[in-house]
Amino acid sequence: MPPLSFAYYCSGHGYGHATRVSAFTRHLLALQDERPTVYIVSSAPRHVFADSIACGALYRYAEIDPVIVQPLAYRVDRQKSVDVLKSFLSKKDILLERERQWLLKINVHAVLSDAAFLGCLAANAAGIPSILITNFTFDSVYSYLATPILDLPSPAHNHDYLDAEAASADFTSLVPDVPVPLSELVPLVEQIHSGYRCADLLLLLPGCIPIPSFSVSPALPSSDWVDVATKRVFPQITKFLTCIQGTHTLHPIVPFPRSSTRTKPKHVCRQIKPAPLLVRPPSAKASVYTPAGRAKLLESIGVPSEYHDHDKTKILVVSFGGQVFKRPGSRSRSNRSSRSHTPSPEPGKVKGSPLLRANELGADLSPKDVLHHLEPAPPSPTGSDIQPLAPARIATPSHLWIPGAPPASKPPSSSSLVTSTSNIPAVNTVPPSPAPLSEVEADSEYFSREDEEEDSACLLPDESWIAIVCGVSKEQWLQQSDEELPEKFYVAPRDVYMPDLTAIGDVLLGKLGYGTVSECVDACTPFVYVSRPLFIEEHGLRLLLDRDGVGSELSRHWYEAGHWASKVQEAYERGRDMKTRKRCDMGSGIGSSTREQEGRQMAVGVVEWVREWWDGPGCTVGEGETR
């Protein structure tokens, strides 16, 4: 049997899918005896898969899935999301036939999907097996748009809290949140669900929620999984997620259609298998955990040398996934330096390097008769987690913008740091305690008496902290004057390698998404997160943080009011010992290969499963042709 060939379908919905697809592709291509050919198929642009392309992956641009519309990193526009879904489904049959023909033309042995339902559907139509590799599926995400839980705007927006410049930045012009009727959603979601039902194997990543296309129960609609009163999944759902996967009752296989080139039916039972955390490693393995590696990265950002010692200075990384998809090479300056250079995270990843340039041209990667099937990426950005709109500046005298998030209140530089957090009102942790007032009412009450309080917005806990802001373009920085940034805030290059920055961080503040959660868990970096209440994946990610990391929720209202310090300090104290052990272990080389070993074992398991599938009964395709 010839070497295996995989088509790996990757959702274009943000960076999380791309980072883990690229991570697992590297594990597949690292196999010595069973190295397969891997085609990455996605509407996300080529450069976000640069590390796996540098290892030999082939990239093909294709429209393969709809996306959830998010005007802000933690807000969902329900109706626009449904409109996008309807538009995609209107051309689903045309796209499906295109993919079916392509899979047969290049003789793919299996489809891997994260988590594009069209890939599973196309595999079934072509008569080949498919493997779903994910922690959630979009049938649950779209189904959840019916939830009666409302995503209300911050009370700050209702009390003239933002100045005129902030109000004109389109961040406060949000449409009212209205649940989508189930009657409208059900026929649409059923088409997504039917695509996932075609998958033969589910490799379930940590931080998962129920996958209703595999498990019979719990069934859709996913809005039934969450308690409206507590905004948390019901206890029976939590129990389901923590039980042994083998105890779940699964839906039966979906047979190949009669029009398929397969001459015999499927011969395998559907399975769910646990998968390890798929996460990008820090560059040069453990070097970023050493004092020299830390200093090198901070110097490239422009952080002064007096802040390089982690025993004296603590780092808050602020990132909401607001980066616009753009080719590598963009640089931005910090508020203390005009440096524009950041080190390459891995060999072969620098734009224009011989290895990356050869991969981009397709040299030495595939036979000439395959190259013409690979389509170039379009120049326009894609992915709804990536925000196309950004303010002209990242700060004004009153507010600070983090790309992808609304403005946060910025105190004057003299009060941006405090030596005590005792005067800051406590913020409920997860799960929240019942309160006599609703969250919105309580926050409204706070804002209404804001002028009567002595408390001012506090971004950092004390003088020992600095902050590094991610996702800011060079153009934005050039319009930004030094004195408008809060004291001890620095701007990272847009293309900074996030696993490195997460590794040196003492706390990370951002939205609750798989990419950030997985890298925080891997680096043992405490995570202060702002909830995405209409994105149901977050419930599985909360459980992952509770089990394997440190997570602390910051109310979006408190984020926008600039009250970060108390939660940052709380998270730091809870995760300090874990972070210290991680730095010691990685600095000495202990534990640096754990993730690599887990990924390699998963890759070996996938190859073995696919070979066994084709070696089983009924594996003839076409007339006289076998795979």
From TrEMBL:
> InterPro entries per the record?
GHMP_kinase_L-arabinokinase (IPR053205)
What is the protein name given in its UniProt record?
Answer: Uncharacterized protein
Q: Basic residues bias located where? A: 328-339
Where does this protein have compositionally biased stretches of type Acidic residues? Answer: 440-453
Which intervals carry biased composition (Polar residues)? 417-426
The organism named in the record is Crucibulum laeve
Where do the record's region annotations for Disordered lie? Answer: 326-354, 370-389, 398-453
